[in-house]
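Hi F.,

I've been meaning to write this up properly since the lab meeting, where we talked about keeping a consistent format for the predictions we share between groups. The idea is simple: the sequence comes first, exactly as it goes in, then the structure tokens exactly as they come out, then a line or two of notes. No screenshots and no reformatting. I'm using this chain as the first example so we have something concrete to point to.
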Amino acid sequence: MTTSMILEKVRVELGERSYDIEIGTGNIVTVGARMKALGLKGRAGIVTNDTVAPLYARAVTDSLTDAGFEPVLLVIPDGEEYKTLPWASHLFDRLLAMRFDRNCPLVALGGGVIGDITGFVAATYMRGIPFVQVPTTLLSQVDSSVGGKTGVNHPLGKNMLGAFYQPEFVCTDVATLGTLPEAEYLSGMAEVVKYGVIYDGEFFKWLEDNRTAILKKEPDAVARMIKRSCEIKALVVGQDERESGLRAILNYGHTVGHAVESLTNYTGYRHGEAVSIGMVVAARLAHKSGLCGREVEARVEALLAGLGLPVKMPALPPAGVLAAIAIDKKSEGGKVKFVLPTKIGEVVITKEWDESVLLEVLK
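Output, unedited:
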């Protein structure tokens, strides 16, 4: 039996909506006790997928039962293509049939897709019910479980339907990465690299210097990079919860990344893989636009490639990519805002980019 241990704690400061990210090993078994300590009780829905359920549903179910909850397992298929309104509606149907009331909490057990759809359902069911994040992928542990962005995809764009809705707390069990496929682990590394580019040049340098330890999943290195990633996101979200300004820097790489995902029907690339491509495109666009030196583009591309992530645009029609970008949520006054690096650790948010330069980069 794995001993439960909290290694680190990061606070997301949002006034009365503040909450903790608890980073540990084996701490998935503490979920029920932590929820009880927060005053939650009664029936609790565990939303997960058919890949994660056989691995961790029992541990969470037992934890909730031991804490006096009545757990109910809600399993959906695994994949980004299931983060849709019809599958959210399926969850609504189940909750209504079981007469969940507005005090019944949900537990999101899984990766980013599960966290996003569970948060969306929690935000909208009876105008809002409590929910808890238990992320089991690196990508969700360092990014999507933190900050309260929830949503589902629409055929015309990723995360077009959603809400800002904060969890009660986040339980990050680093031990769950032991069952994560290598490609999923590497996908999560794209978001880790993102934090270095947008906010912390020293962290980016640390990632370059510790790439071997990261790829070997050495526990100290993994815990350190998860904590620093969460700290950066918590700092940004704490200053701009609803993306009216600073928080938009977290979208670095996502403008083109989301276009790649939607144009490949959410099955061609994992989210982190698409974001990796988007980060390289954005760095190249910044360089060709005179915002940064060639070394910025080179370092971003080299680190991502060194971590086994894709860095080249797939064979998609540039006009199609531009069309997908045009309906991006981050557009303003008909012009999409790009997050572009000026140096490692610093970016600008700008609508002043040249379409012909972007087309050149995309080709």
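Notes:
The chain has two domains: 5-179, 182-362.
The domain at 5-179 is CATH 3.40.50.1970 (Rossmann fold).

If this format works for you, I'll send the rest the same way.

G.
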